[in-house]
Amino acid sequence: MTATHALRRDRGPAWLRRSRFGSAVALAVLILLALAYLYPFAISLATSFKTDAGAAADPLSLIPATPSTSAYTELLRNSDFPLWVRNSVIVTLTVTTGRVLFASLAGYALARLRFPGRGVVFAALVAVMAVPGVVLLIPRFLVINTFGIYNSFAGLILPLLVDAAGVFIMRNYFTSVPPGVEEAARIDGAGPLRIFWSVALPMAGPALITIIVLSFQGSWNELSHFIVASDRPELQTLTKGVAQLTAGALSQGTQYPLKLAAAVIMSIPVALLFLVFQRRITSTHDGAIRG
Amino acid sequence: MVVILGLFLVVPIAMAFWVSVSDWRGVGNPMTGAARFVGAANYSDVLLGDGLATKDLGRAMRNNLYYVLAVVPLQTILALTLAVLVHRRVVAGRGFFRSAFYFPSVTSSVAITVVFLFLFSATGAVNRLLAVLGVEGPNWFADPRGVVHLALGAFGIRAPYESGPVLLGLSWWNWISGPSVAMCVLIVLAVFTTSGTFMLLFLAALQHLPGEVEEAAVVDGATPWQRLHRITVPMLRPTLFTVITLGLIGTWQLFDQVYTGTQGTPGKTTLTPAYLSYQTSFQQQEWGQGAAIAFLLFAIIVVSTLVGRWLLRERDTTAPHRLRPARRPGTGSGS
Question: Which residues of B touch A227 (CB under 8 A)?
Fold first, then answer.
């Protein structure tokens, strides 16, 4: 009796101590890693407020020696940057709205309506998700060309509306919801579209937010599709504009404050989206546990 | 919906396939008689020719292969490490760390590439940091030397007399170069941006692991390392499989960073099949060859996914056996 007691006393604190030491090491490693992940962004923000000379002289400092907003005024006043922002906003908002409608309608149809060939459509959907995007560049260009929508907003937007992953998410969500309420509505005489719009869609909140976040982020950050869909300066979007600005001026090797200011501005909308939906984005999978 | 899917996916791929076996040069519409059927000529030009097209494809394949071989294991290990660390810190700051590691995945590849071009410029932050440590950093984005060549050079092994091309227009010495210094920056960039996403996948899986097994191992006196190595990782196998598959598919498609940052320079050591396909078709108007490269890339992605699957399945039969020999018959159907 006394022996086991002593043993337990011996073991307890030792085990605890080791674990506490382990936790301290883990925390230290975590903090170092977090610094490594966040420092590049902090330094970009800081450098965007430096002068060209200041950026070259002291690339490491987080506080500009001579703060300057010339990079921003240059971007906003003397370049096509505002136009790129406008185009990106138009494309992103249209694509996000379109995808939400398209994905939820198609997902609902696949989950609820019995129509011939449903299995085939679903199989096709999964197959489509498996095709790598880069392989689709030439095919997309050919279609855009054939339909005469090269160099138009339609060409920028329409191909991006196809969102197999979104349909897949919505279909799975609607499948997981019991159809009781919808059946009640059907008995009350509502048609499929009315049931979808007034009953099913309002219940699909969490899945819709997932689609909105994914679509917004996806179309705002899209690059390769915009490269193949147009070559007119008036239709330049942010990603393509900044990429070409960077690529073109690479030989000069300077102008980092300007490029970084562009990178900072183009990161703001997605960063805001991330902050607003942070919890939902980083904990979508463990929602069941967090309640 | 079927119409839209068909219109933008099935038909286009069929059209692109037609272009890959035609002589279309970008004039007129290839669908309505502006192009002639040339059989597999485009494929043999990029695969078996002795010209620049074959050599470029060889370089692109080599570069991307080293990129895949480096990025996939690194991002998987880092993501798993981050997930285990974040998962451990159950109480304070968990949300903060999770967000910090995930944030690079949210921003666009263009913005991140701009940031890395600055960080790794000749007089940039990384070299300044290295200088503090007394190391003279290379001129990252302008350095075409392969790291394997550099390592061999350190032992005094130089390029042998130039042997003939062995595969896709490259000599064996060129094949074993390893990723160039410039490509290494793109490797770091990829690991930096993707590890957060995969960390979330691992975290979700960790949270759904039954705690009893871990507790039983603690009672049996297993060290934390043993618990991680023998219990957590084997139980995470399905997630591991997902992460590696997604990693393989993603890394073979390296394009945005090359378009924004390097355009294949220096010395074509950051050229990738995806960028080469774009360059060949959209810039040089060799649409047949460009489309052929795209389909070859597609085939490579399918094959490497299958290989990854096969490799993981291979280990699948040995790991549970080592872990719990008593229940060996049951594990086959369970996993």
Answer: 259, 278, 282
